[in-house]
Amino acid sequence: MNHPRRRSPLARAWASLSHNLVQKLAALGLALVVWYVATGEQRARVERSFDVPLQVVDNTPLPSGEGRRTVSDITETVRITLEGTRTRLDQVQPDRIEATLDVTGLPEGPFQRRVQVEAPADTRLVRYNPEQASGFIDAVVSQSFAVRLAVTEVPTNELVRLTVSPRVVTVTGAQRQVGGIASVVTAPETIEPGTSREVALIPLDSNGRAVTDVALRPQRVTVSRVDVGEILVREVSVQLSPQTGDWDVRSVRFTPARVRLTGSVSALRNLTTVQATVPLRAGSYSAPATLNLPAGVVSLDNVTADLVVRPQQP
């Protein structure tokens, strides 16, 4: 009796696989076509633009004792266009794109330099704007200024004393900015009798415009007002006291130009001007002035002097 021959496992597997083989291959091909079409948009390479902050690099070594440098008048952002898959570009954040401007070794003054851009991995840099950046390199300096009071008017026939603390502030910033400051004044405030108030400070240029992009230390001062009542008050002009020594005072301007004085009738009767002493040094600067007053006379105003002083020529 003949028994049917048993097929091997490999033969059985092939028989199962080859059963309806054409239909199976057709279904697999259709699935591949559907997958390719469905993912085609994600695989396609597209372009996308980003606004990236421009970072300034300055590793210029400075001589001992000198401070740092600052760069101004440059564009803040760079428009960068990248190419990549939609999925990859969806993952890119602007802070992961590097746009740098290296000014190391450049001298102080105006400059123009190429912007360097580094695209993230799996993307291609297409273009960016601007490709060149221009600006100004300046030294960071600090300068002291006497604080000027700016308050609403007070009665001239009352003993009103306005004091400010501290009287001197330090301004730090680019040399062009700090050099353009003519005075530092308190923000206009109404100070009630017997009160004190913290007020902000405003650096001004020679035309009375506020100077920005500088740091003040401190940023605010305390203004105090003390009223004693109605008394005899006389207003006189301020003059620079005679100077001796090695300095040539080219110009001087007092603020206020006229001060209110109080005292006895006899002390004020013949007083038409008052002399002021100011510490002298070479340069253009402002400083508190000390009034040379007769005995028994008190000034109701703080005086500041703006001077231009040069060394005396032999």
Report strand %.
over 45%
Taking all Cα atoms into account, the compactness measure Rg is 39 Å
pLDDT under 50 segments (min length 5)? none
Structural class: alpha+beta
CATH class of the largest domain: Mainly Beta
What is the name of the CATH architecture of the largest domain? Beta Complex
Q: Helical residue percent?
A: 10-25%
N- to C-terminal distance: 143 Å
Number of strands: 22
Number of helices: 5
CATH topology of the largest domain: RNA Polymerase Alpha Subunit, Chain A, domain 2
InterPro entries: c-di-AMP_regulator, YbbR
Protein name: YbbR domain-containing protein
Please tell me about this protein's structure.
This is YbbR domain-containing protein. It holds the Pfam family YbbR. The chain has 314 residues and is an alpha+beta fold. The protein has three domains: 45-139, RNA Polymerase Alpha Subunit, Chain A, domain 2 (Beta Complex), CATH 2.170.120.30; 149-230, RNA Polymerase Alpha Subunit, Chain A, domain 2, CATH 2.170.120; 232-314, RNA Polymerase Alpha Subunit, Chain A, domain 2 (Beta Complex), CATH 2.170.120.40. The chain contains five helices and 22 strands. Strands 3, 6, 9, 10, 11, 12, 13, 14 and 15 form a nine-stranded mixed sheet that branches. The longest helix has 23 residues, at 21-43. The radius of gyration is 39 Å and the shape is elongated.
Task: Please supply descriptive tags for the structure shown above.
RNA Polymerase Alpha Subunit, Chain A, domain 2, alpha+beta, 314 residues, single chain
